Every structure is written in C-alpha cells, then in structure tokens.
Amino acid sequence: MKHGKRLLMGMLLLTIFLVNLAAPASAYSYGGYKWNANYVVPKIDSSVPSSWTTAIKAGATAWNNAGAAFTFKWITSLANNKVYCASAGDTYLGQSTPTRDGNYNIGYKTCFNTDYSWSTASGGESGKWDVQSVATHEFGHWLTLYDLYDSTDSEKTMYEWTASNEIKKRTLDSDDINGIKHIYP
Ligand SMILES: [Zn+2]
Q1: CA torsion angle for 142, 143, 147, 151 (degrees, to 10)?
Q2: What separation in Å is there between the alpha carbon of 160 and the centre of ligand 1?
Q3: Closest listed residue to residue 19, CA positions, set 159, 129, 169
Q4: Distance between CA atoms of residues 157 and 32, nearest Å
C-alpha cells in the first residue's frame, strides 16, 4: 500500500495490465494463487510495537468475518509467515511479499515501513498512517488479492493508495468480500 497519488511510468503500465485482468462486473483483482489450506497462521515479529497487536489482528479479523472459507489463525505460528517493521525509505507504507510453490502460497511477509509515522488510535490521527487500515489491505494480499488502481475503486480496501488519517480501509467493501469468497468459496 502506498501513500499519495504519484504515478510512475511503471505503475501506469502495471495499472493498464491489472485493469485488463479485472473483470468489469467484479471489482477485485485475483492473482490466481492461493493457500493449500483454508487458514494461515501469521506471526507478529518482535520488531512490531506491542501496541500494534490489536490493530494488526483486527485487520485479519475483517477478512475472517467476510463469510469465505478462510481464516487467519493466531495459534503457535509457523516461521514462514510474519508481519514485521523495517525502514524502507520513501517507498511504500506496507508491502507484502509471497513465497510460492507453483500456484500455492507457502509463506507471506508483510513489512510496515518505519520511516512513516503510524497510529493505532480508534478514530485515526492527523498526519499519521493507520496501522489497522494498512494491515487489512496487506492481509488482502495474503489471500492473494491484488491492488486496485482505478479511482472508482477508492472506497475498497484493496485500493492501492491511502491518505494519512484514513481509516475506511479497515472495513471491507462488498467487492473485497466478493474477492475472498471467489478464492475460498
Ligand atoms: Zn497493496
């Protein structure tokens, strides 16, 4: 997930590619990959402030409550899946990177960029980025939903761009829900 509205050429080309992939009647973008199970067990790395735990788990809960046959479980975790914090410069707010075996995900890692100011305040916080909104978006990638770039998709959790103090992506749009239900019916 990124901030602002900058459009680099590569991003533009990627947008054109993804828009072509997305069926017009269903506004989600599915990567074609999935877990070879109906659940995944993330680990919250020690680099993540403990005050973020509730917000990160709430991001996963939004997808757990979508009515699809898939669950994020917080049991003793497998090492492949983690949420962590690291400095990544002026790039992304959050980024999720898969490990795959064929068409199956076998691991996912989400990085929260510590070069930005973050908030876990229930109503958001001026000038800061909402941990729960970004967590919800990034967990969408774990499912493997792709980013949406069209401005008509701006209300959806899987929209690529967010603004500081924006908390609306904590809540899934009906298209986000249709996406996870499509992958895990
Ligand atoms: Zn994204």
Answers
A1: -130
A2: 5
A3: 159
A4: 19
Angstrom distance (rounded) from CA 31 to CA 108? 14
109-153 tens-digit pLDDT: 999 999 999 999 999 999 999 999 999 999 999 999 999 999 999
70 CA to middle of ligand 1, Å? 19
* The residue type at 28: Y
Into which CATH architecture does domain 30-183 fall? 3-Layer(aba) Sandwich (3.40)
How far apart are the CA of 79 and the centre of ligand 1, in A?
22
Tell me, in angstroms, the distance from the centre of ligand 1 to residue 148's CA.
Answer: 8
Q: Please give the distance, rounded to the nearest whole angstrom, from the Cα atom of residue 113 to the centre of ligand 1.
A: 13
**Residue extents of the structural domains in the chain:** 30-183
